[in-house]
Amino acid sequence: MDAEGERDPLFVGSVAKALRVLQAxxxxxxxxxxxxxxxxxxxxxxAAQRFCHTLLLLGYLEKDxxxxxxxxxxxxxxxxxxxxxxxxxxxxxxRFVLAAHEASGHAFNLGQPIxxxxxxxxxxxSLHAAITSPLVGxxxxxxxxxxxxxxxxxxPGEESDFLIEHSTLDAITPHTMTDRxxxxxxxxxxxxxxxEVANQExxxxxxxxxxPVLGRGRQAxxxxxxxxxxxxxxxxxxxxxxxxxxxxxxxxxxxxxxxSPSA
Length: 263
Description:
By secondary structure, the chain is α+β, with helices and mostly antiparallel strands. The protein has helices spanning 3-7, 13-28, 34-41, 45-58, 76-86, 88-104, 146-153, 157-165, 180-193, 235-256, and strands at 61-63, 70-72, 107-114, 117-124, 139-141, 196-199, 206-214, 220-229.
């Protein structure tokens, strides 16, 4: 429980602890023993056992009969489905992304911010090339992705600074931009151009171009990106041929979400 939660009289600590158990599986991305769940969630062994038992009875966890390790059950997808089917951002943006995908055949991703990451809430694979992309719900850091940096560029300066300061800035590939000053300078360039291109910063062999998606009051809501491979594309060609596609797509989504034209 964080300090803010401790001061909130309506905060229910037991709910937070149960969610920490579920979040442990995202960190590990595999089946877990009770001891591993205890370590990853920060809960004591006894508390972890009680929460796991409750989640098992409720159907959100299932147990391997041989190893007795636990994993998330398909029931968790009920919550994901409810999000995907009721989110107004997705309801508007998805149809534009699908139309762009059908017209070009390229890989498209629609992202929304989660902490200092972008979470992919729509992912349409390329019809032309095998590109490694996260599944829906996959996350990637803002600082080293075209999606993330384009989103950051649309935030007020103090908000983007906060997210950059609270990013780990790990070098995921040899091409990853990890200097905070360089990232801030890059945001100014994105504001001028309206899009960002990332060259193999998160996935080797992948070029990505992205633009921010805005809502009412030109509030940053997320971003949309297009992915191609370095085998077939250069940065220069991406900027010349694909940046107009992604900026037009982002502008169409933004207008549909109520964003006023830029000055």
